[in-house]
Design brief:
It is a single chain. The protein has 406 residues and is α+β, with helices and mostly antiparallel strands. The chain has 15 helices and twelve strands. Strands 1-3-4-11-6-9-12 form a seven-stranded antiparallel β-sheet, sandwiched between helices. The longest helix is centred in the C-terminal third of the chain and has 20 residues. The termini are far apart.
Length: 406
């Protein structure tokens, strides 16, 4: 490095003879530093003007796609707050107050539910309560989604078949809503993902051994970290962002959880994925057939009833899966303005011989009647991915019942 006494002359020569940079092995940053030390002003000479590259994504604006469904009890009289919470959650759980609490004490709840076109993010702050999803509730409910929960504060204990899982900040709890469970929670702040079981069908389904477990360590932190970053952007996400965010959440959940549960041989896993693909195709191609039954599917796949049940266990069973696909097909027909068939005729197409039975099954699945959809279609109400063909007064119940069907 030249001495400071030579700085002025050296800088002058380097400016006019830049090839000398190679001789002295100096960078332009070092040249500027020399100029600053010498008190002289360094003037950079360029053959071409500097062209700044603006960061990608800055300045782009798009209308936010998501508006949360909000539920809170602060505006209600204290003696009505817990009853309102019970009714709100009845589609999913039976809830009870702790023995030490009384309805007149009030019950604080704030819940925001965000629908990412097929995955729900539920942000929730609640007082302490007990909860149960009984075997009878599971049997008669079409809801068999996976629920993945992490806590920011508080603690919960959830039991199934004598096995209790504790959840607290730093852990992630994985639970199937297609299986019975019960437990209690302290006052807590939590975030839950609710993902349809069918969302993992192309991976052979999330293993049933994932149910009633808590995930810790770096895998839990990766999942919590990504979900936290998504939460911070929920109010800014555009419609075009949703598919990517949803896919990332689905893949991260599967890859974080599945490798840690009971090992499945790779060949068996590939075989299971192939069987599910074949089963879904057969069901879709035979939705209108009254002969589409679990036995018919078992014969097509050359599987025993036991093996067939295992294949569809995470989907709530074969019959439940077939019913959901039929209801989805009926919903699509009723929401199509070009389809002029009557409600009873649509029911016949998907295998119902009675309009009353079809209407009951449809209402049970979606939370509203088939005639409601037909009327909405006739009035020309817009149908978009942002607001699927459901009544504009979306409820927690309707979101859960239709999740993954659109």
């Amino acid at each position: 490095m030249p001495t400071c006494g030579h700085n002025c002359a050296l800088i002058h020569r380097l400016v006019h003879q830049p090839e000398m940079l190679y001789h002295f092995s100096l960078t332009w940053g070092e040249i500027e530093a020399l100029a600053a030390d010498d008190g002289s002003q360094f003037v950079e000479r360029r053959r071409w003007p500097r062209v700044s590259q603006a960061p990608l994504g800055e300045g782009l604006t798009a209308s936010p796609a998501l508006v949360p469904l909000r539920f809170e009890t602060s505006s209600l009289p204290t003696d009505q707050q817990f009853a309102a919470w019970q009714a709100h959650m009845s589609v999913l759980l039976t809830t009870h107050l702790p023995e030490s609490a009384q309805p007149d004490d009030g019950f604080s709840v704030t819940q925001h539910v965000w629908n990412l076109d097929g995955i729900l993010i539920v942000q929730q702050d609640t007082s302490a309560f007990h909860f149960e999803r009984s075997a009878n509730e599971v049997r008669f409910s079409p809801i068999n989604h996976w629920m993945i929960t992490f806590m920011r504060s508080g603690q919960s204990w959830t039991g199934m078949n004598g096995q209790v899982v504790e959840n607290h900040p730093g852990l992630v709890e994985i639970r199937s809503l297609g299986q019975p469970f019960s437990g209690r929670t302290l006052a807590a702040s939590s975030t839950s993902l609710i993902i349809p079981a069918d969302a993992f069908a192309d991976r052979g389904g999330l293993p049933i051994t994932c149910n009633n477990v808590a995930l810790g360590g770096h895998r839990a932190q990766l999942l919590i970290g990504y979900l936290t970053s998504v939460e911070a952007s929920l109010g800014k996400l555009a419609q075009g962002d949703l598919a990517g965010v949803k896919a990332n959440l689905r893949e991260l959940v599967f890859d974080a959880i599945a490798p840690l549960v009971e090992h499945i041989d790779e060949k068996d896993n590939v075989s299971q994925i192939a069987l599910m693909t074949k089963a879904r195709r057969f069901i879709q191609n035979n939705l209108a057939s009254p002969d589409l039954t679990p036995d018919a599917l078992g014969r097509e796949l050359a599987l025993s009833r036991t093996r067939l049940y295992e294949l569809f266990e995470t989907f709530g069973g074969v019959a439940n899966y077939i019913r959901r696909r039929r209801m989805l097909a009926a919903h699509a027909m009723l929401a199509d303005p070009a389809d002029t068939r009557k409600v009873a005729e649509v029911g016949e197409v998907i295998g119902f011989d009675s309009a009353a039975n079809f209407s009951r099954a449809f209402t049970h699945q979606f939370g509203y009647s088939p005639s409601n959809i037909r009327k909405q279609t006739a009035t020309g109400a817009p149908a978009t991915r942002n607001t699927p063909d459901i009544p504009p007064q979306a409820t927690f119940e309707s979101l859960l019942l239709t999740l993954g069907l659109f």
